[in-house]
Design a protein that fits this description.
CATH architecture of the largest domain: 3-Layer(aba) Sandwich
Structural class: alpha/beta
Radius of gyration: 20 Å
Number of strands: 12
Number of domains: 2
Strand content: 5-15%
Shape: globular
Strand order of the largest sheet: 2-8-7-6-5-3-4
CATH topology of the largest domain: Aspartate Aminotransferase, domain 2
Distance between the termini: 41 Å
Order of helices and strands: HHEHHEHEHEHEHEHEEHHEHEEEH
Protein backbone atom coordinates (compact mmCIF):
# COMPACT_ATOMS: atom_id res chain seq x y z
CA UNK A 1 0.00 0.00 0.00
CA UNK A 2 1.30 3.46 -0.90
CA UNK A 3 2.36 5.40 2.22
CA UNK A 4 -0.45 7.90 2.86
CA UNK A 5 1.74 10.81 3.98
CA UNK A 6 4.44 10.73 1.28
CA UNK A 7 3.27 13.89 -0.55
CA UNK A 8 6.01 16.50 -0.84
CA UNK A 9 5.72 20.18 -0.04
CA UNK A 10 5.91 20.94 -3.76
CA UNK A 11 2.99 18.60 -4.43
CA UNK A 12 0.92 20.12 -1.64
CA UNK A 13 1.53 23.61 -3.02
CA UNK A 14 -0.44 22.61 -6.14
CA UNK A 15 -3.58 21.84 -4.11
CA UNK A 16 -6.59 24.13 -4.39
CA UNK A 17 -8.04 23.13 -1.01
CA UNK A 18 -8.62 25.77 1.63
CA UNK A 19 -5.67 24.69 3.75
CA UNK A 20 -3.15 25.37 0.99
CA UNK A 21 -4.75 27.91 -1.36
CA UNK A 22 -5.77 30.48 1.25
CA UNK A 23 -2.26 31.21 2.49
CA UNK A 24 0.65 33.08 0.86
CA UNK A 25 3.31 30.99 -0.89
CA UNK A 26 5.84 31.51 1.90
CA UNK A 27 3.49 30.35 4.66
CA UNK A 28 3.38 26.73 5.84
CA UNK A 29 -0.28 25.90 6.61
CA UNK A 30 -0.91 23.89 9.78
CA UNK A 31 -4.35 25.20 10.62
CA UNK A 32 -7.67 23.89 9.27
CA UNK A 33 -8.42 20.19 9.70
CA UNK A 34 -7.33 18.79 6.35
CA UNK A 35 -4.70 16.09 6.10
CA UNK A 36 -1.84 16.11 3.60
CA UNK A 37 -2.52 12.57 2.53
CA UNK A 38 -2.94 10.47 -0.61
CA UNK A 39 -6.57 9.60 -1.30
CA UNK A 40 -7.55 6.05 -0.44
CA UNK A 41 -7.42 3.99 -3.66
CA UNK A 42 -11.00 2.72 -3.32
CA UNK A 43 -12.30 6.29 -3.04
CA UNK A 44 -10.32 7.31 -6.14
CA UNK A 45 -11.76 4.33 -7.99
CA UNK A 46 -15.30 5.22 -6.93
CA UNK A 47 -14.89 8.78 -8.16
CA UNK A 48 -13.51 7.51 -11.47
CA UNK A 49 -16.61 5.37 -11.77
CA UNK A 50 -18.79 8.46 -11.36
CA UNK A 51 -16.75 10.20 -14.07
CA UNK A 52 -17.07 7.26 -16.45
CA UNK A 53 -20.83 7.22 -15.87
CA UNK A 54 -21.10 11.02 -16.30
CA UNK A 55 -23.03 10.87 -13.03
CA UNK A 56 -22.90 14.46 -11.76
CA UNK A 57 -26.53 15.20 -10.97
CA UNK A 58 -28.09 15.95 -7.61
CA UNK A 59 -27.45 13.44 -4.85
CA UNK A 60 -29.68 10.43 -5.27
CA UNK A 61 -31.40 7.82 -3.14
CA UNK A 62 -29.49 7.72 0.18
CA UNK A 63 -29.88 4.03 1.04
CA UNK A 64 -26.45 2.88 -0.25
CA UNK A 65 -24.70 5.44 1.98
CA UNK A 66 -26.89 4.64 4.98
CA UNK A 67 -26.27 0.91 4.53
CA UNK A 68 -22.51 1.40 4.16
CA UNK A 69 -22.32 3.50 7.31
CA UNK A 70 -24.49 1.01 9.19
CA UNK A 71 -22.10 -1.79 8.28
CA UNK A 72 -19.08 0.23 9.39
CA UNK A 73 -20.71 1.29 12.66
CA UNK A 74 -21.75 -2.30 13.42
CA UNK A 75 -18.36 -3.81 12.62
CA UNK A 76 -16.16 -1.16 14.26
CA UNK A 77 -18.22 0.09 17.19
CA UNK A 78 -20.89 -2.58 17.67
CA UNK A 79 -23.53 0.03 16.91
CA UNK A 80 -26.74 -1.03 15.18
CA UNK A 81 -27.86 2.18 13.50
CA UNK A 82 -30.53 0.72 11.28
CA UNK A 83 -34.10 -0.14 12.16
CA UNK A 84 -37.15 2.00 11.66
CA UNK A 85 -36.88 3.96 8.39
CA UNK A 86 -36.21 7.66 8.78
CA UNK A 87 -33.75 7.48 11.66
CA UNK A 88 -30.72 8.24 9.48
CA UNK A 89 -30.54 11.07 6.95
CA UNK A 90 -27.92 12.83 4.90
CA UNK A 91 -26.57 16.36 5.10
CA UNK A 92 -23.98 18.27 3.10
CA UNK A 93 -21.65 18.27 6.10
CA UNK A 94 -21.70 18.06 9.87
CA UNK A 95 -21.98 21.84 10.10
CA UNK A 96 -25.25 21.81 8.18
CA UNK A 97 -26.49 18.91 10.28
CA UNK A 98 -25.72 20.73 13.53
CA UNK A 99 -27.20 24.01 12.40
CA UNK A 100 -30.41 22.61 10.97
CA UNK A 101 -30.96 20.40 14.01
CA UNK A 102 -30.43 23.29 16.42
CA UNK A 103 -32.60 25.55 14.25
CA UNK A 104 -35.46 23.06 14.55
CA UNK A 105 -35.09 22.83 18.33
CA UNK A 106 -34.43 26.39 19.48
CA UNK A 107 -35.60 29.97 19.19
CA UNK A 108 -33.40 33.06 18.91
CA UNK A 109 -31.93 33.90 22.29
CA UNK A 110 -31.90 30.31 23.54
CA UNK A 111 -28.65 28.93 24.92
CA UNK A 112 -26.64 25.94 23.72
CA UNK A 113 -24.08 24.30 26.01
CA UNK A 114 -20.50 23.98 24.77
CA UNK A 115 -17.39 22.51 26.43
CA UNK A 116 -14.44 24.74 25.54
CA UNK A 117 -11.81 24.82 24.36
CA UNK A 118 -13.91 23.32 21.58
CA UNK A 119 -14.11 23.24 17.79
CA UNK A 120 -13.93 26.85 16.72
CA UNK A 121 -16.74 26.67 14.12
CA UNK A 122 -19.32 25.92 16.80
CA UNK A 123 -19.31 29.59 17.75
CA UNK A 124 -20.13 31.12 14.34
CA UNK A 125 -22.72 28.40 13.76
CA UNK A 126 -24.56 29.45 16.91
CA UNK A 127 -24.13 33.10 16.07
CA UNK A 128 -25.75 32.54 12.67
CA UNK A 129 -28.73 30.93 14.41
CA UNK A 130 -28.95 33.81 16.92
CA UNK A 131 -28.59 31.45 19.86
CA UNK A 132 -26.08 31.93 22.67
CA UNK A 133 -23.22 29.65 23.70
CA UNK A 134 -23.32 28.65 27.37
CA UNK A 135 -19.79 27.54 28.16
CA UNK A 136 -18.95 24.76 30.58
CA UNK A 137 -15.15 24.42 30.16
CA UNK A 138 -13.48 21.04 30.15
CA UNK A 139 -11.66 20.13 33.36
CA UNK A 140 -8.03 19.04 33.76
CA UNK A 141 -6.95 20.21 30.32
CA UNK A 142 -3.28 19.78 31.25
CA UNK A 143 -4.05 16.13 32.00
CA UNK A 144 -5.91 15.53 28.75
CA UNK A 145 -9.36 16.81 29.71
CA UNK A 146 -12.61 15.50 31.14
CA UNK A 147 -16.21 16.61 31.19
CA UNK A 148 -17.38 18.89 34.01
CA UNK A 149 -20.57 17.03 34.94
CA UNK A 150 -21.36 19.33 37.86
CA UNK A 151 -21.02 22.31 35.55
CA UNK A 152 -23.25 20.61 33.00
CA UNK A 153 -25.87 20.01 35.67
CA UNK A 154 -25.86 23.70 36.57
CA UNK A 155 -26.06 24.80 32.94
CA UNK A 156 -29.02 22.54 32.26
CA UNK A 157 -30.72 23.65 35.46
CA UNK A 158 -30.39 27.26 34.25
CA UNK A 159 -32.69 26.51 31.33
CA UNK A 160 -30.46 25.40 28.45
CA UNK A 161 -32.06 22.57 26.51
CA UNK A 162 -29.41 21.68 23.93
CA UNK A 163 -25.90 20.30 24.50
CA UNK A 164 -23.53 20.43 21.53
CA UNK A 165 -20.92 17.78 22.30
CA UNK A 166 -17.68 17.21 20.39
CA UNK A 167 -16.85 13.50 20.71
CA UNK A 168 -13.99 12.72 20.42
CA UNK A 169 -13.06 16.16 21.62
CA UNK A 170 -11.49 18.65 19.22
CA UNK A 171 -8.89 20.05 19.95
CA UNK A 172 -7.92 17.97 23.01
CA UNK A 173 -8.15 14.58 21.30
CA UNK A 174 -10.00 13.35 24.38
CA UNK A 175 -12.05 10.16 24.09
CA UNK A 176 -15.01 10.19 26.48
CA UNK A 177 -15.68 7.20 28.68
CA UNK A 178 -18.98 5.36 28.54
CA UNK A 179 -19.60 6.42 32.15
CA UNK A 180 -19.20 10.13 31.36
CA UNK A 181 -21.55 9.91 28.40
CA UNK A 182 -24.13 7.93 30.35
CA UNK A 183 -24.05 10.52 33.14
CA UNK A 184 -24.51 13.32 30.60
CA UNK A 185 -27.47 11.49 29.07
CA UNK A 186 -29.13 11.21 32.48
CA UNK A 187 -28.62 14.91 33.14
CA UNK A 188 -30.11 15.79 29.76
CA UNK A 189 -33.13 13.57 30.39
CA UNK A 190 -33.71 15.11 33.81
CA UNK A 191 -33.92 18.55 32.20
CA UNK A 192 -35.75 17.58 28.99
CA UNK A 193 -32.69 18.46 26.91
CA UNK A 194 -31.18 17.07 23.70
CA UNK A 195 -27.52 16.11 23.19
CA UNK A 196 -26.21 16.68 19.67
CA UNK A 197 -23.01 14.65 19.43
CA UNK A 198 -20.60 15.71 16.69
CA UNK A 199 -18.69 12.45 16.17
CA UNK A 200 -16.82 13.38 12.99
CA UNK A 201 -13.39 12.37 14.41
CA UNK A 202 -14.61 8.99 15.71
CA UNK A 203 -12.87 6.83 13.06
CA UNK A 204 -9.57 8.53 13.99
CA UNK A 205 -9.28 7.20 17.56
CA UNK A 206 -5.71 5.93 17.97
CA UNK A 207 -5.05 2.22 18.38
CA UNK A 208 -3.20 2.96 21.65
CA UNK A 209 -6.10 4.87 23.19
CA UNK A 210 -6.83 3.72 26.78
CA UNK A 211 -10.50 3.39 25.81
CA UNK A 212 -12.37 2.99 22.54
CA UNK A 213 -14.73 5.47 20.97
CA UNK A 214 -18.26 4.98 22.29
CA UNK A 215 -21.09 6.30 20.06
CA UNK A 216 -23.40 8.40 22.21
CA UNK A 217 -26.47 6.52 21.02
CA UNK A 218 -25.06 3.21 22.27
CA UNK A 219 -24.47 4.35 25.85
CA UNK A 220 -27.91 3.64 27.32
CA UNK A 221 -31.62 3.67 26.61
CA UNK A 222 -31.65 7.21 27.99
CA UNK A 223 -28.95 8.33 25.56
CA UNK A 224 -30.95 6.91 22.68
CA UNK A 225 -33.91 9.02 23.72
CA UNK A 226 -32.01 12.30 24.17
CA UNK A 227 -29.25 11.94 21.56
CA UNK A 228 -28.61 12.85 17.96
CA UNK A 229 -25.30 11.83 16.37
CA UNK A 230 -23.57 13.34 13.36
CA UNK A 231 -20.95 11.50 11.32
CA UNK A 232 -19.04 12.03 8.07
CA UNK A 233 -16.16 10.44 6.17
CA UNK A 234 -14.65 13.89 5.68
CA UNK A 235 -11.97 13.95 8.41
CA UNK A 236 -10.95 10.29 8.54
CA UNK A 237 -10.72 9.84 4.77
CA UNK A 238 -9.88 13.49 3.97
CA UNK A 239 -12.82 14.13 1.64
CA UNK A 240 -14.39 17.24 3.18
CA UNK A 241 -14.84 18.87 -0.21
CA UNK A 242 -17.11 16.05 -1.38
CA UNK A 243 -19.85 17.24 1.00
CA UNK A 244 -21.56 14.31 2.68
CA UNK A 245 -22.55 13.73 6.32
CA UNK A 246 -25.04 11.55 8.18
CA UNK A 247 -27.35 12.33 11.05
CA UNK A 248 -28.55 9.43 13.21
CA UNK A 249 -31.28 9.35 15.83
CA UNK A 250 -33.08 6.58 17.68
CA UNK A 251 -36.29 8.61 18.00
CA UNK A 252 -38.75 8.11 15.19
CA UNK A 253 -40.12 11.33 13.72
CA UNK A 254 -37.28 13.63 14.80
CA UNK A 255 -35.96 14.48 11.31
CA UNK A 256 -39.19 15.66 9.59
CA UNK A 257 -38.99 18.87 11.62
CA UNK A 258 -35.98 19.90 9.52
CA UNK A 259 -36.28 21.99 6.41
CA UNK A 260 -36.85 19.86 3.34
CA UNK A 261 -34.11 21.75 1.46
CA UNK A 262 -31.50 19.78 3.37
CA UNK A 263 -32.42 16.73 1.28
CA UNK A 264 -30.86 18.41 -1.76
CA UNK A 265 -27.66 19.57 -0.06
CA UNK A 266 -25.41 16.46 -0.11
CA UNK A 267 -23.15 15.81 -3.10
CA UNK A 268 -23.51 12.81 -5.38
CA UNK A 269 -19.70 12.50 -5.43
CA UNK A 270 -19.84 12.49 -1.65
CA UNK A 271 -22.22 9.55 -1.88
CA UNK A 272 -19.81 7.61 -4.09
CA UNK A 273 -16.91 8.40 -1.75
CA UNK A 274 -18.80 7.59 1.45
CA UNK A 275 -19.85 4.14 0.26
CA UNK A 276 -16.25 3.37 -0.72
CA UNK A 277 -14.84 4.76 2.54
CA UNK A 278 -17.11 2.82 4.84
CA UNK A 279 -16.89 -0.46 2.95
CA UNK A 280 -13.51 -0.70 1.20
CA UNK A 281 -11.09 1.69 2.94
CA UNK A 282 -10.68 0.27 6.41
CA UNK A 283 -7.15 -1.01 5.84
CA UNK A 284 -6.12 2.38 4.43
CA UNK A 285 -7.62 4.10 7.45
CA UNK A 286 -5.85 1.77 9.88
CA UNK A 287 -2.47 2.59 8.37
CA UNK A 288 -3.21 6.29 8.34
CA UNK A 289 -4.32 6.38 11.97
CA UNK A 290 -1.24 4.43 13.01
CA UNK A 291 0.94 7.13 11.43
CA UNK A 292 -1.13 9.89 13.06
CA UNK A 293 -0.61 8.28 16.44
CA UNK A 294 3.14 8.15 15.79
CA UNK A 295 3.17 11.89 14.97
CA UNK A 296 1.20 12.61 18.13
CA UNK A 297 3.51 10.61 20.36
CA UNK A 298 6.64 12.12 18.78
CA UNK A 299 5.50 15.73 19.14
CA UNK A 300 6.45 16.23 22.84
CA UNK A 301 10.10 15.40 22.14
CA UNK A 302 10.09 17.66 19.08
CA UNK A 303 8.69 20.51 21.15
CA UNK A 304 11.21 19.86 23.93
CA UNK A 305 13.98 20.24 21.37
CA UNK A 306 12.77 23.44 19.73
CA UNK A 307 10.14 24.98 22.04
CA UNK A 308 10.66 23.62 25.57
CA UNK A 309 8.32 26.22 27.09
CA UNK A 310 5.34 24.88 25.11
CA UNK A 311 3.19 22.34 26.95
CA UNK A 312 1.39 19.58 25.09
CA UNK A 313 -0.47 16.52 26.37
CA UNK A 314 -0.92 13.97 23.55
CA UNK A 315 -4.56 13.14 22.89
CA UNK A 316 -5.91 9.81 21.70
CA UNK A 317 -7.92 10.83 18.64
CA UNK A 318 -7.36 12.65 15.36
CA UNK A 319 -4.41 14.75 14.21
CA UNK A 320 -4.81 18.04 16.08
CA UNK A 321 -2.48 19.21 18.84
CA UNK A 322 -3.61 21.72 21.50
CA UNK A 323 -0.50 23.66 22.47
CA UNK A 324 -0.17 25.66 25.69
CA UNK A 325 2.05 28.58 24.64
CA UNK A 326 1.43 30.84 27.62
CA UNK A 327 5.04 30.68 28.83
CA UNK A 328 6.28 32.09 25.53
CA UNK A 329 4.98 35.57 26.36
CA UNK A 330 3.23 35.94 22.99
CA UNK A 331 -0.09 37.17 24.41
CA UNK A 332 -3.57 35.76 24.02
CA UNK A 333 -3.07 34.73 20.39
CA UNK A 334 0.36 33.14 19.88
CA UNK A 335 -0.74 31.88 16.46
CA UNK A 336 -0.54 35.46 15.23
CA UNK A 337 3.12 35.71 16.23
CA UNK A 338 3.91 32.34 14.68
CA UNK A 339 2.39 33.57 11.42
CA UNK A 340 3.97 37.00 11.37
CA UNK A 341 7.45 35.99 12.53
CA UNK A 342 7.69 32.32 11.60
CA UNK A 343 5.46 32.11 8.50
CA UNK A 344 3.56 29.11 9.81
CA UNK A 345 -0.22 29.23 10.23
CA UNK A 346 -1.88 27.58 13.25
CA UNK A 347 -5.46 27.97 14.46
CA UNK A 348 -5.82 30.72 17.10
CA UNK A 349 -6.59 29.51 20.61
CA UNK A 350 -9.05 32.29 21.53
CA UNK A 351 -11.37 31.15 18.72
CA UNK A 352 -11.97 27.92 20.68
CA UNK A 353 -13.77 29.80 23.44
CA UNK A 354 -13.10 30.11 27.15
CA UNK A 355 -9.64 28.98 28.29
CA UNK A 356 -8.25 29.37 24.75
CA UNK A 357 -6.16 32.48 25.41
CA UNK A 358 -2.46 31.72 25.10
CA UNK A 359 -3.07 28.47 23.21
CA UNK A 360 -2.87 27.45 19.54
CA UNK A 361 -3.95 24.38 17.59
CA UNK A 362 -1.39 22.67 15.38
CA UNK A 363 -2.45 20.30 12.58
CA UNK A 364 -0.01 17.35 12.49
CA UNK A 365 -1.92 15.36 9.87
CA UNK A 366 0.98 15.57 7.47
CA UNK A 367 4.42 14.11 6.87
CA UNK A 368 7.02 13.88 9.61
CA UNK A 369 9.12 16.37 7.67
CA UNK A 370 6.39 19.01 7.54
CA UNK A 371 5.55 18.59 11.23
CA UNK A 372 9.23 19.22 12.01
CA UNK A 373 9.29 22.21 9.69
CA UNK A 374 6.18 23.67 11.34
CA UNK A 375 7.74 23.42 14.82
CA UNK A 376 11.03 24.82 13.55
CA UNK A 377 9.20 27.82 12.09
CA UNK A 378 7.32 28.33 15.34
CA UNK A 379 10.63 28.42 17.19
CA UNK A 380 12.02 30.94 14.72
CA UNK A 381 9.25 33.34 15.77
CA UNK A 382 10.99 33.67 19.14
CA UNK A 383 14.40 34.54 17.71
Amino acid sequence: MTPPFDLSLEQMRTHRSAKWSRVPEDVLPAWTAEMDVRTAPAISAALHTAIERCDFGYAGEPTPVIDAFAGYARDVWGWETQGTPGRTRLFADVGQGVKETIRAMTSPGDRVILNPPVYLSFYPWLRDLRVEPLEVPMLDIAGGGRLDLDGMRGALASGARVVLLCSPHNPLGYVYSREELAALAELAAEHDAVVISDEIHAPLVHPGSPRPFVPFLTVSDTARQVGIALHAPSKAWNVAGLKLALGVTAVEGRWPALQSETDWAPSILGQYAAVAAYTDCREWLSGTVTEIEARTQALPALLDEHLPEVRFRPGHASYLAWLDCRELGLGDDPAQAFLERGRVLLSPGPAFGATGAGFARLNIGTSEELVTEAVRRMASALA
